[in-house]
Amino acid sequence: MTALMAEIGAAWLLAILAGLPLFAAMGLAAFAFVSIAGLSPSIVPQKMAQAMNSFPIVAAPLFIFMGNLLSACRITDRIVRFATVIMGSLRGGYAQASILASLIFAGMAGSAVADAAGTGAVEIRAMKRAGYRPETAAAINASAATIGAIVPPSLPIVIYGVTSDVSVGRLFLAGCIPGLLMAGALMTMVAVIGKRQGFPRQRFAGWRELWDAFLGAFFALMAPAILLGGMFSGLFTPTEAASVASAYALLLGLVVYRSLRLADIGRVMVETVETAGIVAVLVMAAGALGWCMSISRVPQTVAPMMVASIHNPVLFLLACNALLLAVGCFMETLAALLILIPILHPVAASFGIPPVQFGIMMIFNLILGTIHPPVGVVLFITSRIAEISFETMSRAVLPWLVPLLIVLAAITFWPPLTTWLPGLVMD
Q1: Fewer CB within 10 A of the terminal residue: the chain, N end or C end?
Q2: Distance CA 76, CA 222 (A)
Q3: Mean pLDDT, residues 160-176 taken together
Q4: Is the pTM of this model over 0.85?
Q5: C-alpha angle 111-115-121 in degrees, rounded to nearest 5
Q6: What is the mean pLDDT of the chain?
Q7: Averaged pLDDT for residues 57-82
């Protein structure tokens, strides 16, 4: 059956290259497998339904809903103002504020795309007005947006946890330190380049302005604290946290800030259903194809082959980094996770690599593809906001990949960066 799965996999890859939607290609590949193997075609819809029969997967549409609500409430304006008042007096203060705002917003939105779209409109335009080159402003915002997929709540982390049967709570904790390191590395990059290129420095606005900005953003800043505090204190599960966060976002928009109209909720719900539908159909199709891989013993065959040929867990991690970085340049993050987890996760387990470390490393690699051509969905968003060409944006972001790659190397070679916090809190 392994040979059969390999042939169907090749046909599936050709279907994708021909322009067939990914979920359709995966579903057709699953139907082809069961038909040729002489199994009942009814198995495929059963496995699709089974893939969605997971309590943690409920968190996905709720986190999407929360992110869309926060964007509709224009909470990003308050966060950016607070970050700018804090960081504005430093060299490259607006750039530093952009990174800080992305880190804060990442603790609410959970998506690189949502982070770029939510904070980019405010941050990029502010940097342009302050004298930054448009491509520089866009590159800083795009690279900072990747933090959204690493720190909790993160939609890719939820999908990884569900697919690999790893605790979502542990994965959320595992992403905290890498997310802070990403922000610190990018801020260091701003300090180094800012001094050389003469990034502007703003006058400190004063303690009164800082206090006013803090009060204006206080309830928005409390969203990550409520979310993470509730999860890790045991008050609610990660799935329940998504419901709490959505309710809190509604409270902020309708009652506290009054920046959300009842008429806006319908539009937000439609956007959420559209995004959640895409995620759901990918999960379902990948679940069916993953079952086909499982009974054809593809993971069981690939794992011993890789262990026998590589021998060393460090070499395996390096090979995975190279593979995932390449895949991330051509394939959407969630789709790549759903395809590669059933193949790579068992191999990592056979090498004794902690599942939370491997999960964060996988997501980190793939999310870098969102700021690298030829797909680079975050690049498309930020280039449109900055009103520059995609080609210009692609060149400008390359230097900002360096600090992120340094953080990736750190979590690859030093597991405690991802394993220490989950062990401290949950063991």
Answers
A1: C
A2: 13
A3: 87
A4: no
A5: 155
A6: 79
A7: 74
Share of the chain above pLDDT 70, in %: 81
96/319 Cα distance (integer angstroms) = 33
What's the CA gap between 183 and 173, in Å, rounded? 16
Instruction: Kindly report, residue by residue over 205-225, the tens digit of the pLDDT.
Output: 778 888 888 888 788 778 777
Tokens of 120: 């980019």
Compute, in degrees rounded to 10, the torsion defined by CA atoms 288, 289, 291, 294. Answer: 180
Environment class of residue 423 by beta-carbon count within 10 Å: exposed (0-12), middle (13-18) or buried (19+)? middle
Give the mean pLDDT of 7-29: 67
Amino acid identity, position 401: L
What distance separates the 2 farthest-apart alpha carbons in the chain? 74
Three-class DSSP category at 426: helix
Distance CA 231, CA 214 (A): 25
- Which residues, 6 or more positions from 260, have their beta carbon under 8 angstroms from its beta carbon? 69, 72, 73, 250, 252, 253, 254
- Measured between alpha carbons, how far is residue 278 from residues 145, 272, 376 in Å? 21, 10, 18
